[in-house]
Write a structure and sequence with these properties.
about 90 residues; mainly alpha; 4 helices; elongated
Length: about 90
């Protein structure tokens, strides 16, 4: 999650090098490809743990809080990294 700024910087620099058409779409795709798989895999593994009635399973409220953190914290970091990559020196 803290590497989201680096993600935005790399996505922005690739956008500038390839002379992209839609920076917003590139920004959203890089955000989803960076954090989406993490959330999907961790949620799936948690449901498997719940299915086996494991004590290591996270409560639903905790999963919701993690989802909120993943949707509220990284987007400003990705946007700032993207803006930093497009700013001339």
């Amino acid at each position: 999650m803290l590497r989201s700024g680096v993600n935005g910087y790399v996505a922005g620099s690739m956008y500038a090098k390839m002379e992209g058409q839609s920076w917003v779409r590139g920004l959203v795709v890089s955000y989803l490809l960076f954090l989406g798989p993490f959330f999907l895999v961790s949620t799936f593994l948690n449901f498997v743990a719940v299915g086996y009635t494991s004590s290591a399973a996270l409560p639903v409220g905790t999963v919701v809080v993690i989802l909120l953190i993943l949707t509220l914290v990284p987007p400003p970091l990705v946007l700032s990294g993207h803006a930093a990559s497009l700013t001339p020196y």
